[in-house]
Design goal:
Layout (H helix, E strand, L loop, with lengths): L1 H13 L1 E2 L2 E2 L1 H30 L4 H30 L1 H22 L16 H32 L6 H31 L1 E2 L5 E2 L1 H21 L13 H18 L21 H16 L4 H7 L5 H6 L19 H23 L6 H29 L9 E7 L5 E2 L8 E2 L1 E2 L4 E3 L3 E6 L5 E6 L5 E6 L7 E4 L10 E7 L6 E2 L14 E3 L2 E9 L2 E9 L4 E6 L14 E6 L10 H25 L5 H20 L5 H24 L6 H11 L5 H13 L6 H4 L2 H19 L1
Parallel strand pairs: 5-12, 14-19
Antiparallel strand pairs: 1-2, 3-4, 5-8, 5-9, 6-7, 10-11, 12-13, 14-16, 15-17, 17-18, 19-20
Helix pairs in contact: 2-3, 2-5, 2-6, 2-7, 3-4, 3-5, 3-15, 4-5, 4-7, 6-7, 6-20, 9-17, 10-15, 10-16, 12-14, 13-14, 13-16, 14-20
Amino acid sequence: NLTDEKMDETKKKKKKCCGYPISIFFIVVNEFCERFSYYGMRAVLVLYFRYFLLWDDDLATSIYHAFVALCYLTPILGAIIADSWLGKFKTIIYLSIVYAIGQVTMAVSTIHDITDANRDGTPDNFTFHIALSMLGLVLIALGTGGIKPCVAAFGGDQFQEHQSRQLNTFFSVFYLCINAGSLLSTLITPVLRAQEYGIHTQQQCYPLAFGVPAALMVVSLVVFISGSGMYIKTDPEGNIMWSVCKCIGFAIKNRFRHRSSRYPKREHWMDWADEKYDKLLIAQIKMVLKVLFLYIPLPMFWTLFDQKGSRWTLQATTMSGDFGAFILQPDQMQTVNPILILTLVPIMDRLIFPLIQKCGLNFSPLKRMTVGMLFAAMAFVAAALVQIEIDKTLPNFPSSSESQLKVVNIYNKTLNSNRTSLRYLFLYSSADYMTLDHQNITVSLNTNPVITKAFSLIKGGRQTLIIPSNPTLMYLQEDVKSKPKEGKNAIRFVNGWTADLNITNLDSIEPSATSNYTLVSHGKRDFVLRHGEQWCEFSQKFGFGASYTFLIPSTVFSTDVCTLSKTEVEDMKPNSVHMALQIPQYFLITTGEVMFSVTGLQFSYSQAPKKQAGWLCTNAVGNIIVLIVAELGKLPKQWAEYVLFASLLVAVSIIFSIMAYFYTYIDPAEIEAQIRKEQGLEPEEKEKETLEMEEKDEGQKNDQEVKKNQDIRFVKIRLCWNMLIYTL
């Protein structure tokens, strides 16, 4: 009965630790685990698309941003479910179950051995893995987005009206856990991904990289359910969004009905709803619409910002991550962003902004946001400059109508070809690939007798003409025509000895034959060559993204002693542009984030306190723009796409600055107080005084004060959001 419910509620309020409800510790741990799960999965997602599912850069980028966009659209659904139907507690429970199922499904989809029947390390049924991963991502998006608007608000529900100080501290710790989860997961999951595993073949450990976030999500759910008996659970209060939509719809309908000139005009088109709806609601909708109109250009910022996890990560795969003391994985570069956030926020808040204010400059929130967009544009200009440097080191691959040829000569004499396009001397290897615009060639060697052989080259391909110890057996060998994936090195061996050779991790190589390519990671690698009881060992240090052909001479086992003097042919140079060159673009984009995102949230809640969904939607729309450009733009050079995005953002920032110039700042509290006064309601100032009295008299509440809590709660929420913005 009602009395028992009040007693249970009182018991929950008494369960405290250091002045805080015990229940909030479960919520904080839950949030840390959930954010670790989300950002850990997201950190390696684009590389999973690129190197496991073997999608190209554009498709991998498109699906990545489609997923992120969905994650920022589903909070609207979560808010509607929580406010109109289940309440925050049940919404978090049910959608967290969906979330955990999605993470587990995603982890299972990365196990290549499930469909690798021929045990070659590549899935035989990509459709199965794609379908499973897409199902997992949809469930994850529903889960993470659905609980996003509920968890922080549910934590706020655990505090009483007199605990504003503890409430502010809770939000500080809450968002510290978000940053901690993001930072740690972005550091750890790429390391897990770089491990090698496999029942039959050793591959990148995507199951572990996705499995750990899945386990953390299960832990998050268990921890949250464990605190169930301690939570204060509020009933659904009705969804404000539905009321807003009905009010706007009625205003439009009523305005259309009275479109005749005989009806007097009204100050604002929303005023046509005052015949049915409360003036306070109409005033709040006006504030929201005013801010939403200003939001129209904002998605372009997120279009650039969220490419840290896609284009910039793919860019890092073509760079060197050797920092001497440690090796940085391409997807670990994203950790620069949260590290800089934790550094720049206090510097901006305590030093830069106060200094600008002391100089007498009017650096208003909208001006900060404009400058933030310009910083993001500069970040993409920096990314374009880095990409140009990378392109200088990339091989010049043939077009679809061309062929490329290199010659490797392990015959013990210098040979000369009388082919016009090949007329030069070569010993061991020609200096670089020759680009030919025709496929049929005939090669003649000046041996005695002359050896002549015809070959047909592959259009759009790279091949090597291997001239073994017996020149009559010369043949073409197909080469790799793209950079080895994930920064690894592609190596192969040409057996110049007269018998079969066994080489570490390779099948037996017949005389004069060439092995298939094998991918090896950076660092020092040892190789052992064996033939029966005879063996030779050599070491080679590798960088990132190179391709080598090792020539084993015919004299390798000519005596009882190993006389290996192997020759290496560099088919593709290693990555020479260092990942450290990405730091300036991360610094610029993070500076832009501090000025744009943090200030934008503060502006939103100062001008329209009830508007969070609109801000999240700008992020979703920004990711959709990336998807469209990636699929439809198809620019031939990646640096050109970076410049395009930078140019678009500069144009948008100019438009936004013009809109901001004509924007008039308002005080929502003043407007609401004026409307309350006109309606004969208690002014907000008196409500604030009531709140202060409650804080002085801790723990003493009566039924009369509880009746006034509806408007006091609104004041509290605004106070919490201001503290939240400061924490960010």
